[in-house]
Every structure is written in C-alpha cells, then in structure tokens.
Amino acid sequence: MIIQSPAGDPLSAVLALSELRAACSVRLQAGGVWALRFQPIELKFNVVRRGECWLRMQGMPARLLQAGDCFVVSRKPFILASGADVEAVDAAEVFAHDEASATFGVGEEVELLGGSVSLSGPGATELLDVLPTSLIIRAETAGASSFGWLLDELGREWPSHQAGSQAMCNDLLRLIFIHALRHHINSADAEQLAWLGGLREPAIAGVLRAIHAAPEKAWRLTQMAEMACMSRSGFAALFKTCMGVAPVEYATRWRMRVAAFRLRNGRDNVATVAASLGYLSDAAFGAAFRRVHGISPGQYRRDPLL
Questions:
Q1: Looking at residue 229, which CATH number applies to its domain?
Q2: Domain-terminating residue out of 131, 155, 189
Q3: What is the domain count for the chain?
Q4: In CATH, what number is assigned to the domain containing residue 17?
C-alpha cells in the first residue's frame, strides 16, 4: 500500500514555524455567584462543557457562553463570570493549589475545560498579529460536529488517568485551536483576516501554496502571475489587497521566516542555511535576513530572542 503525503498548505506551514504548543490543560467548576479574572500570556482556550457563563473583556460588551461554545482569547485580560457585573477574583489565586483543576463559588453548575496555547517560533508573529482579541465558536455553528468529537475526547481523556492522557489532552487542545482558526478564516470579514484572507481567494491561495512549498526559489512576479492565470498588474494588485504586501516581498519574508526557523532549531551554520534556501552568497543572504529580522543571521543563531 502506498501512502501519499497530503499537499502542503500555507496555514500548516505557518503553524509549523510558529511552534504551536499547549502550555497547560485546565478544568474549572463553578457555581452560585462568581467571577474569575484571567491574564493569558498568549492564547487562552476554553470550552463550556456544562451550564453557562459570561465572557467579559474591557471595551467589549459581555457575551453569554453556553454549553458547547468554544472561545480563544489572544493576549488580553478577560473575566469569566456568572453575571455581567459580578466583581472578579484573580484566577491565579484559585488555581494556586492545583494548576490543573479548581472549584470556585457554591456548587458545580458550570464546567469549563481549556488551557493555554503558546506560539514561540519565527512564524508566531504572522498568526498573533491577525488573530482577533476574542474568537467565539458557537455550539450550533457549521462544523460544530468536529468540535463536538474533539471535546468529547477531551472530556473522556481528562479524568481517565490513563498512560499518556496529559499528552492526549494537550494535543486535542492544539487541534481545537486549529479548528477555531479555520472557523475564523471561513467566517470573518475579509478586512479582519489580513494575510489569512488570501487563503479564501483561489488565485492567491494557489500561489501561496507554491511559495510555502518551495521557499528556496527566488520567486518572480511573472512566475506567480502565470500560476494565477492573471496579468502581472492584475495579480500584483489582487495580492497586495489580500495580503497587505507585494507578492515578491511576501515570498522574501517567508523565505527569511524559514531561515530563522532553521537557524534557531537546527545545527546547520549560516552558510549551509543560506545555500539550502537558494542563496549563492552569504552576503546576499545576510542582507535579506537583516532587512526582515533587523539583525544578522549570525546574531540570530547565537541568540534568537534578540
């Protein structure tokens, strides 16, 4: 039997370079009159498994979450509460004794599963900058069956204490986050998506797949326009509208994101990475890398946190 690898796609490529990791998995049970304030470092994900609660964020109207609803909050403080105006307690205090599970208030009317997801790689900026402050996926939304299966698995794994259950929960959280991201791509207005909007435009999406599949190529506008079956000027205008940058600039930036990933995670020296990405001289590679990342490849390899 021959198993073929699926065709690559730009979002998967960006996720790979973003080093998406589930930082922790948690469970919260609450009841009565209650409110907890959370401060996510990057992305906080939660699923309402039972009951209902309010999601409150500064500058936004309170939103009621019900059983089956999922949400992702990006780098902004938020409050989960039994009411729209209940005074909140710091969640860190409630989870101080057990980082994985907590009970708050009176009773257990509400149950949430969730956790924190981090993106730390060179591709993280592309995702973090285009994610909305909060993203809610309602239980009745199209595609909720996929969420339902993942949530059921998460609910079964959480209390099972089987070998590998924590790893399973973390991987399920990663999958739920990707489903949430897909939902955002498919449902948001184009102006809310920035470069993600290009994934919904067939002519642009095909070119993006090619760029991400072959970062070592020195992509030219003529090649990309021919691939999209458009004129140079028409393609350039559409690409800039969808992606926010010119086609050749996007290809160069992606090439340098891949370079940063290889310098950060591999053992190859700068010259080897430069050659693997099609550069015939270290000087040309260094100039392109410095223009995108602000430091030289050698400096980045020594300290990628600069």
A1: 1.10.10.60
A2: 189
A3: 2
A4: 2.60.120.10
Domain end (from 189, 218, 248): 189
Do 63 and 173 reside in the same domain of the chain? Answer: yes
When pLDDT is averaged across residues 133-152 and rounded to a whole number, the result is 77
Q: How far apart are CA 193 and CA 113, in angstroms?
A: 27
Q: By C-alpha distance, which of 176, 68, 199, 71 is closest to 132?
A: 71
Asked if residue 117 lies in contact with residue 45, where contact means CB atoms within 8 angstroms, the answer is yes
Does the pLDDT of residue 116 top 70, yes or no? yes
Question: Residue 246 in contact with residue 220, Cβ under 8 Å?
Answer: no
Task: Examine the domain organization and report whether 229 and 274 are in the same domain.
Answer: yes
Residue in 41, 43, 36 with CA at minimum distance from that of residue 92: 36
Could you report the per-residue pLDDT of 183-236, keeping only the tens digit for each? 888 888 777 777 788 888 889 999 999 999 999 999 999 999 999 999 999 999
Is a pLDDT exceeding 90 seen at residue 100?
Answer: no
- pLDDT of 250 > 90? The answer is yes
User: Are 113 and 230 contained in the same domain?
Assistant: no
pLDDT tens figures, 5-21:
444 678 888 888 887 77
Residue with tokens 């990707």: 178
Domain that includes residue 100, residue range: 10-189
The end-to-end CA distance of the chain, in Å, is: 48
